[in-house]
Amino acid sequence: MSMVSLPGLKELIESISRERNLPRVAVQSAIREALLKGYERYRRAQNLDKKQFDEDYFENFDVQLDAEEEGFRVVATKTIVEEVSNTDHEIALQQVQDMGGEEAQLGQEVVLDVTPDQGEFGRMAAMQTKQVLAQKLRDQQRQLIQEEFQDLESTVLQARVLRFERQSVILAVSSGFGQPEVEAELPKREQLPNDNYRIGATFKVYLKKVSQGQQRGPQLLVSRADAGLVVYLFANEVPEIEDEVVRIVAVAREANPPSRHVGPRTKIAVDTLDRDVDPVGACIGARGSRIQVVVNELRGEKIDVIRWSPDPATYIANALSPARVDEVRLMDPETRQTHVLVAEDQLSLAIGKEGQNVRLAARLTGWKIDIKDKAKYDHGAEDAKFAAARAKYAAELNEIEEEEFEEEEFEDENQPQLKVKDDLNNKIEQDIEEDEDIDDELEDELYDPDEE
In what order do the strands lie in the sheet with 368-373? Predict the structure, then answer.
């Protein structure tokens, strides 16, 4: 069989494998695909009768790469027929028999050497091969990264700053000890305001997503602002969490506050089934030793560790820490609205700077929290307000449900009811908020911009 010589092929495979951190098998596969594309280009250029080649015309062709002899062959799989109509896909039975295949039969397939002469391959075909090889190597590398990091999504990796591109930081990360580093992108929205991103600096990052497709740039999207990073740091620092004695129930994090006057802050709710273990104390550690490690990694971010409770009122009161709560009134469990009563000197602390404390508590608990001054709170008026609102819209709900039931088919009858309920709940909240004239005045009057 003839062969097109490729001097230095073995050394080329080794060097590409080292430079791109690809296995030799992957490099050889990329070279074979590139040479096959080059052969197609050569055949199209030699197409003197201007025959049209379909996209799948060359599917029966293949390239055999010989790294030891430093060359390649092109072979074609052809079907044995009585009369040939396409010489690229068919071969005559008589011709096969003349070549020594006396036992050949019609319909069988044979593999034949169709390698062009060394000088006929052509400069354009060589250029096509070079271009395709570069693309195939990039594809192989991206596929390898995707397979390597796919199972590491939602985990934490050690990263090192390489460079800056626009507002993103490009980091070097590794999937494990001894594995080569690959690039990851840390976008502006996933950065912490207190981080100092300088070349060579190291950080722990949360792997949010491994991108697929052929887009340029890093495939890995990492974050310093994701709540998963806080969960990992506590699990890594608190043995009771790793041993599942203490569990993290919920996390609410505001790593990039809407105002530059407010710093990053996190609230984390923990619980335990062991009566002899204090879950909050376990996370904080002796003299704050454990939580301080987490705070240092997050560059001074404020972290509130609170005790989770199955009782919503207790849970909400805990979530508003460090403010002291006098009473929690669950005004409407269906729409999850609550009034929290605090002393006058606790109002600004419960609300927090620019509302951050109550905003995080609401996110942590899933309840809409209204902070009220206990001294000025009218229990009867508030109860009457909610009762009147519920009665008013309950009547409207019944009327609309009857109309919808008549119009809609049986299989869709629940969908408009759900929408109506949502609309009515929104109206209830709006009406109640319109009647409340205490909160905004108190917040403006008592808010201290320097108080946390």
Answer: 327-332, 337-342, 368-373
Contact 305, 281 (CB under 8 A): no
Give the span between the Cα atoms of 230 and 252, in whole angstroms: 10
pLDDT tens digit sequence for 287-334 = 999 999 999 999 999 999 999 999 999 999 999 999 999 999 998 888
Task: Dig out the tokens for 213 from the structure.
Answer: 């497709």
Other Cβ atoms closer than 10 A to 128: 21
Type of residue numbered 345: D
Q: Are 234 and 253 in contact (CB under 8 A)?
A: no
Is residue 179 very low, low, confident or very high in pLDDT (cuts 50, 70, 90)? confident
Q: Using DSSP, state whether 172 is helix, strand or coil.
A: strand
CB 84, CB 23: distance < 8 Å: no
**Percent of the chain with pLDDT strictly greater than 70:** 84
Cα separation, 329 vs 340, whole angstroms: 6
Say whether both 346 and 212 belong to one domain: no
CB 363 within 8 A of CB 250: no
Tens of pLDDT, residue by residue over 29-59, are: 888 888 888 888 888 877 756 677 888 888 9
- Residues 52 and 186 placed together within one structural domain of the fold: no
Say if residue 164 is in the same domain as residue 113.
Answer: no
Count of CA atoms in the C-beta half-sphere (13 A) of 172: 11
Structure tokens at 223: 């974050």
Tokens of 267: 């609230």
- The domain tally of the chain equals 3
Alpha helix segments (H runs only) across 238-374? 239-242, 279-284, 289-297, 312-319, 347-351, 356-365
The SS3 of residue 441 is: helix
- Strands 71-81, 90-92: pairing is parallel
| Angle of the 379-407 helix axis to the 414-435 helix axis, nearest 10 | 150
CATH code for position 214: 2.40.50.140
**Are β-strands 327-332 and 302-307 bridged in parallel, bridged antiparallel, or unpaired?**
unpaired
Is residue 299 within 8 A of residue 195, CB to CB? The reply is yes
Contact yes or no for 161/222 (Cβ under 8 A)? no
Residues 6 or more apart whose CB falls under 8 angstroms from that of 93 comprise 80, 81, 82, 104, 105, 106
Reduced to 3 states, what is the DSSP secondary structure of residue 178? Answer: coil
Neighbours of 293 (CB within 10 A): 16
Angle among Cα 369, 325, 288 to the nearest 5 degrees reads 105
Residues 91 and 180 in one domain: no
| pLDDT tens by residue, 262-291 | 999 999 999 998 999 999 999 999 999 999
Strand partners, 50: none
